[in-house]
Design a protein that fits this description.
This protein is mainly β. 6% of the residues lie in helices and 50% in strands. Strand 26 (337-344) and strand 27 (349-354) form a beta hairpin.
Length: 357
């Protein structure tokens, strides 16, 4: 048995109940577990069976009770469900945590429709999960090929429906797929549609359009798919929404670079001119950026000072050179530049370009 706890500040790692039994009676087990203190107020618990690949065992869950041993705050819930759930083979149960005077989230049934070319013919050999992310957390990895519904097959396309029960996720953001196989194969996935079962709209569309080459002796493939657009059922709202998601998608494809500019500690080293920079990587080069908003100083590029700037641009790959200069304007335009340090947090890389002139 494994549990994951969600709080207002984040979620715990999966907590295995193995070796955490404090007391055991006939039909009741008490576990003593320690959670990070910085999770914030708990709002959701997911519990389930960690691995069922070679097991047919079932777990009947009747009642759940949780108490903070410091504050004595207590939450209890009647479950009366058996894992794995018989309807869709899901091995996880999620439920909201209800506290006095605080409105709890509700459990929602989501319909995930997978559009592909050849998954159904390989389904007995392939293991495929999806983790759905929204503003209220995620679903954890849920099996996509255990129990399929509404199967549609054509000559060159197919689709099937997967049912996922989860505490409501809010606005959906992305889906992370994990794919592995017992044999070498190629899986062609076109797109995913995701919506609440009881509503016609909104439908969140995740464009995949990728053929995954899966190898039996290689690690599982992980692919993060951001939402492409949302069908709201109202054309005007759709247009606004799609533009927002297009902008959001573009923002997600940008990389933030932190640029530290070291002005030398020599007489007359500072400048009042307008400084610009261009970054060159092994994949692309940036546009020209004017360095004017220093995070430390109102008047940047003064003698012996370090100025930090942040820019967002397309992914450039590994940086190999920069172009930095100024327009010669201002009373004291001469400038002695010691060096430039650039941090690419997405690659966990720091690049140093020495100038000393």
């Amino acid at each position: 048995l494994v549990m994951v706890f969600y709080g207002s500040n984040g979620k715990s790692n999966p907590v295995s109940m193995e070796n955490k039994v404090e007391h055991q009676a006939k039909n009741e087990i008490t576990y003593d577990i320690h959670l990070p203190s910085d999770l914030g107020m708990l709002y959701k618990v997911r519990l389930g069976l960690q691995s069922l690949e070679n097991s047919i065992s079932q777990l009947c869950l009747r009642h759940f009770k949780m108490q903070n041993t410091s504050t004595l705050d207590t939450f209890s819930l009647t479950i009366n469900k058996t894992l794995p759930l018989s309807l869709n083979g899901d091995r996880w149960i999620e439920f909201p945590v209800e506290w006095p005077l605080k409105e709890a989230l509700s459990v929602v049934t989501y319909h995930l429709t997978v559009f592909s070319r050849n998954i159904l013919s390989e389904r007995n050999l392939v293991h495929m999960t999806a983790c759905i992310y929204g503003t209220h957390g995620d679903t954890g990895d849920r099996s996509l090929l255990w129990s399929l519904q509404n199967i549609q097959q054509g000559e060159d396309n197919e689709s099937f429906l997967v049912i996922v029960d989860a505490v409501e996720l809010g606005e959906l953001d992305k889906v992370v797929l994990l794919i592995s196989s017992k044999t070498d194969c190629k899986l062609d996935i076109k797109k995913l549609h995701l919506k609440e079962a009881v509503k016609e709209h909104p439908i969140y569309v995740f464009e995949v359009n990728e053929a995954f080459s899966v190898h039996a002796n290689k690690p599982e493939i992980q692919r993060e798919i951001p939402v492409s657009f949302v069908i709201r059922g109202d054309k005007k709202k759709n247009d606004i929404d799609n533009n927002l998601h297009k902008e959001g998608s573009q923002a997600r494809n940008l990389t933030e670079y932190t640029i530290k500019v070291y002005t030398g500690d020599k007489r007359g080293a500072g400048t009042d001119a307008n400084v610009h920079i261009i970054l060159f990587g092994n994949e692309d080069k940036s546009e020209v950026f004017k360095l004017s908003q220093s995070l430390e100083h109102q008047d940047p590029f003064e003698r012996g000072k370090v100025d930090t700037f942040k820019i967002n641009t397309k992914k450039l790959g590994s940086l190999h050179s920069i172009e930095i200069g100024h327009d010669g304007k201002g009373f004291a335009s001469g400038w002695f530049l010691e060096k430039v340090e650039i941090t690419d947090a997405s690659r966990n890389s720091v690049y140093c370009f020495n100038c000393n002139r």
